[in-house]
Amino acid sequence: MRGPAGFLLCSLLLVAPHCTEVAAQDVQPDPKTPCANWMGGAPGYPGHNGLPGRDGKDGKDGLKGEKGETGMQGPKGDQGEMGIPGRDGPRGFPGYPGQKGEKGEGAFIYRSAFSVGLTERAPHPNVPIRFSKIFYNEQSHYDASTGKFLCNIPGMYYFAYHLTVYLSDVKVSLYKKDKAVIFTYDQFQKNNVDQASGSVLLHLSAGDEVWLQVYGEGDNNGVYADNINDSTFMGFLLYPDPD
């Protein structure tokens, strides 16, 4: 078939497959439409989240950052517990002397003391021996005219006597309130000068009297004193009673 008819037939054969392909493309359903021109279902629900993955390996430390600015000072904290005492420090230098304090009154109030000696030879027996040589009697608690010590401050007292013995034996006793407390006896040795002594602690109340006295029949009063031999009697307050 040559000529115009043959050319037309060839043209139809070439165009026919192309038209068929175009038609086929035009009838493809759109999957995005609710009904895609075919029996498609509704969209499904989103699926569940999957399980977390495993931790990855630690990376390498980065470079040290720059120092930040100083922050604001925080509030004062609570006081901590006391720590263990530390070691003693070195000894300091001596301080300057302080000012002299005022004179106290207590020591003078409680003074009471006397010390006396004999001036007469052979005192009379059975009466208080009058020691008229005064060594100390600042408070005047000893009366030389009677030979007796009068207690003005109640408390504990110490009394002592040291007597020279000459010409005859000596028997003396220390009295408190008309009662003999202690006795001393010394036997005289011819052509010799001897000593007799005694001491005692006594608690006295205000108004109590203490003295020495020769006792016996009168032939035991060898208490002696001269310019080189003394017979003495003394006493003083050790400490007063509490108020």
UniProtKB/TrEMBL annotation:
Keywords, in A-Z order: Collagen, Hydroxylation, Secreted, Signal
Keyword GTP-binding listed: no
Basic and acidic residues biased stretches: 54-69
InterPro entries: C1q_dom, Collagen, Collagen/C1q_domain, Tumour_necrosis_fac-like_dom
Signal peptide feature range: 1-24
GO cellular component, one term: collagen trimer
Span of domain C1q: 107-243
Region listing for Disordered, in residue ranges: 43-87
Location relative to the cell: Secreted
Transmembrane region(s): none
Pfam family, one: Collagen
PANTHER family for the chain: ADIPONECTIN, EMILIN ELASTIN MICROFIBRIL INTERFACE-LOCATED PROTEIN ELASTIN MICROFIBRIL INTERFACER
Name this protein carries in UniProt: ADIPO protein
Gene symbol of the encoding locus: Adipoq
